[in-house]
DNA sequence: TATGAATGAGGATTCATTCAT
DNA sequence: GATGAATGAATCCTCATTCAT
């Protein structure tokens, strides 16, 4: 009987374990939409289907929510990214291509994108967020990619460029693409296709913009 | 008329006409530092050297300040950028290089950088900011650069790439460079040099990352 | 019946009948330490070794706890005190000395002292406390002592003083002694000895402060 | 004109200087009546004739109000009391009598009595209050009186008693008198007369309770 | 009986905005 | 114009009390 009731109408829930995640889910959407300062705790509660007071049963303060939010999202990222980075032994172009595509796909998911957006926006106000994101994500992912580039240089696949700076050439377009679309509602005429962006970018990245047989200046 | 007023009582008080600008200057620094929501009108007043009430003599509300802030900064940008874009008739690489360098130099100025930072951060809260910035800056500058690229393609200088997407490859690194440094305090080992970033990026952009005599894939 | 219940599942849980008292014990310590308003029901529950909800099985409200607390402590006091007061038939100095010593010894016990402290502190907020304490303790004890004094006067042992006012001279020092130590952490150089206080006080009380062979006033 | 307006209807007051004191006056009454925890800031504001926000213009927090309250009351007390204590050179009984009478008169003023009552009640919650009161009042007044007693002993006016403990015999009755009346509404049949209390107490204090020609115990 | 998750009224504090001077 | 005192709506957080289990 209790089992059937549960499956029918778990209205009166008593699930202390799911609650924190439900709160974080609700908070993420709201923070992403309205920013931290403009989101009221009661809004979070309502969206999570609870009352104001219940939120405080699981988080000691509003700021603790945003920190938990980033912490939750940030931890699993590292492994995923690192796994791929080291996987490619031969031509590093394959690894870099794969990494970029994975990055782009990840950020195409609103739930995932919301986190770095939040971190960037609130970093000035809650420096812990930036610290955490840097420590857990950037400090793991960026060096891995940089190493990929450096390996390509050392093995003679790439020109003698600065790997650290080149990293920025690598990932920059993805960010701009996102920001133009997200903040300014500017998308390419053909729509916000990450695939096409990546392919175009990889073309330029590996082979350059200049035509193969250079047309001299007039 | 204002002149006569000045000569009557020039005392130590600044001309009333400069007041709005001084308020905007003060607000810009504070908003950039702490975000809009966390900046109090009294802080702005204090930094501008006047009292809270006086701020309301010039601006009807706090939000009006941030809007005026962006409007003031945004208007002159258009001409400057457009001037350069059309100037180069021959090899578009020169024009692109010049544009990138100018962009980078502009953004190296904290006062200038503060504006887009502010717009990005507060866009969700005050959509007018994003609209304004898009209308006044992006919708003028981006198409101009895109056209430069397109012209290069059409004239046979560049490969057959998508100009709109390539635009993102062009400016992306600058954005990432800034964001890594500003939000996450991550700079290249040699320091945050925009010049080196640009040179490295142009190298890749025009000639590609791959070594001139390609090492074949395994 | 309760016995059979006990024998069925005596486990490790304390008898339900003692619960209310355990709650009161816990509450007394906490109220004495932190005051009524600053003590949370959950603290009481935790210290009593049960859960918040269970407290409400025994007491309908937080205020009911403090009232029960005082009521419990207050009832037995009357008999004890009255017993001694009437016991001394001859020189009332013996009775008074005994009463004072007993009073002092009683109040030296933190558990006993806590009650009047609590009553005094919370009297303004919960007038029932003061009423109860007055009715159950003061209205029984004070007249008994006053009668002792009056009897001493009538029998020619004491001067013709006002018994009611003299009562205050009798017990005042004990109160001050306690308050200085408890609230302001002020104790005599030799330590907070009630015995020495009482002996000194009795000396003055019975024989006066002035030296036996008076030094005449100028 | 402004002058006459002021005297007629100073409704729209702009007197930043009086405000803090008005707030403290209002707070004192309320704290004395209801205790600190039960007094709402808005009540204080209303009684002081201002709005909630205005209170925070002058005090950073509710606790700052109670501290300022005690500080304001406490500072002037010291001088007054000390002045009298040292004044009497000959028979110290005069000095002690005067001191007691002054103490009693002071505490008969509700405004003055309210402060130590408040301190005693809230000491556990805001230890700064007790500290402040001790430092500014007790540590100055009590030693002065104790010295008076000691001087009487040394000069042969008094018996060889413990001056520090005798101090408690001296002031205790006044406190009990107050507390019985204030907390428990117990006054002598003839009314709450401090004068009669003091006279009765001084009689006992100086000459003892025992009849001049002692009636031997049976 | 016992639990502790859930509730929501209540209260301290902040701050954009107003307005008498 | 300029000031800064005053306001009160808004918001975070607390905690006594309830109630499904």
From TrEMBL, chains A, B, C, D:
Keyword DNA-binding among record annotations: yes
Segments forming domain HTH tetR-type: 17-77
Residue ranges of the annotated DNA-binding region, renumbered to this chain: 40-59
Keyword terms, alphabetized: DNA-binding, Transcription, Transcription regulation
Superkingdom of origin: Bacteria
Cell inner membrane is among the record's keywords: no
PANTHER family named among the record's database cross-references: HTH-TYPE TRANSCRIPTIONAL REGULATOR BETI, HTH-TYPE TRANSCRIPTIONAL REGULATOR RUTR
Protein's name according to its UniProt entry: TetR/AcrR family transcriptional regulator
Source organism of this protein record: Devosia rhodophyticola
């Amino acid at each position: 009987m209790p089992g059937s009731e549960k499956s029918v109408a778990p209205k009166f829930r008593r699930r202390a374990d799911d609650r924190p995640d439900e709160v974080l889910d609700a908070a993420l959407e709201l923070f992403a939409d309205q920013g931290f300062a403009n989101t009221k705790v009661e809004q979070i509660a309502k969206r999570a289907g609870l009352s104001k007071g219940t939120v405080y049963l699981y988080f000691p303060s509003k700021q603790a929510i945003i920190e938990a939010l980033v912490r939750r999202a940030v931890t699993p990222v590292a492994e995923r990214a690192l796994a791929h980075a080291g996987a490619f032994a031969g031509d590093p172009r394959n690894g870099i291509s794969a990494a970029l595509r994975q990055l782009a796909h990840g950020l195409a998911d609103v739930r995932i994108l919301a986190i770095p957006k939040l971190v960037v926006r609130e970093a000035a106000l809650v420096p812990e967020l930036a610290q955490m994101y840097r420590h857990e994500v950037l400090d793991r992912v960026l060096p891995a990619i940089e190493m990929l580039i450096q390996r390509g240089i050392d093995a003679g696949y790439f020109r003698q460029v600065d790997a650290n700076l080149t990293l920025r050439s690598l990932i920059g377009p993805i960010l701009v693409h996102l920001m133009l679309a997200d903040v300014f509602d500017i998308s390419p005429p053909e729509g916000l296709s990450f695939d096409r962006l990546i392919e175009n970018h990889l073309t330029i990245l590996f082979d350059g913009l200049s035509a193969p047989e250079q047309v001299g200046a007039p």
